[in-house]
Amino acid sequence: MPPPRTASPCLAFVSRSRTVVFFNTGPFFLGCAFFVIAFAITWGLSFSYFAVYQGAYLFLPLGFVATCGPALAGIIISAVCNTQPRQRSIKAPWIAFLVAWVVSALVWLAHAACIDGMPLSPALVGLTLVSVTPVAFVISMAYSRIPAVRGYLSSLTRLRGVWGWSLLALVFYPAMILLSIPVSSILGRQPMATHRFQETGLALIGLVAVQFLYQFFFFNATGEEPGWRGFALPRLQARASPLIASLILAIFWIPWHFFLWQSQGQAVLTWDFWVSNGSLIVLSSVITAWFYNRSNGSILVAGILHAAGNTSARSLLMQDWYMYLALKAVVALVIILAGRMWKKLPSEHPAVYKELAML
Known about the structure:
By secondary structure, the chain is mainly α. The protein has one domain (10-339). It is built from 15 helices and two strands. It has helices at residues 27-44, 47-53, 60-67, 69-81, 91-114, 122-131, 133-140, 147-153, 163-186, 201-237, 242-256, 258-263, 271-294, 299-315, 321-339, and strands at 10-14, 19-24.
């Protein structure tokens, strides 16, 4: 006989005769636990970033786990708090894992060879196959036998119903950066160069495609967005408006990058760095929240937008960075006003976390 339903989900041990409740797992508690676990994974393994950038490539698998911290935190909490029996066959997640494992490994090797100019070798292939394991694991969890995990991540691999938003997410940032060029020229500022690659035509398209897929798999759509937008944002939006929720999320999203930026040699001890990057991420948080909500809570759309933004920033030589930042602020303001993001979403909205009854 199933235990009685409650108004708020709980982590519980279900026996034949009674249900023992350990603690409440409402949106606020789960949100706090998510940030603690995400930072513990990423910051706890941050030493791997410094090791890799100093040439100790054997630490690369740990660096991959670290950067998947937000996604892994969401998976861990969802699995622990799941109260429903496992469903479906074990074959689906394993097939998804193998496919994602092979595809992500090919993307990593293509980027290493075509963009980083690294010679392919058995050692590089072996290290890649080990390193991409956490990425393949996150993707495979969209087909997990654990209902709470599968429900949380299913939109990561689902294109049905979000084709239009996916295409818009793909061109949004490139279009905005290209728009910055004539605006900067009209205002008499230094224009941006078109791209940083020497290739043209199909070769250029191929390199940009490799760069996009690299950003998508490593780790915009697999490490970050399943956590920031897929897990945290719906729980924040259960209590706050999309605008407030995205601003709160940005407070955590910014410092989460600290050790990665530091290992890359960024000027993390200067105010100018934090003002510039902090402003950029705050605006990105608002824009990504809008895309996520408009696509009815699609992690895939958020991941495409994130990857397209990073690809554009790395493919184009943005000499007039502040013009781009100003244009992005204007676009974010338009989105806030047009989408009335200060108003709380209805509780039945797909991008709002719902307190499921305990089964």
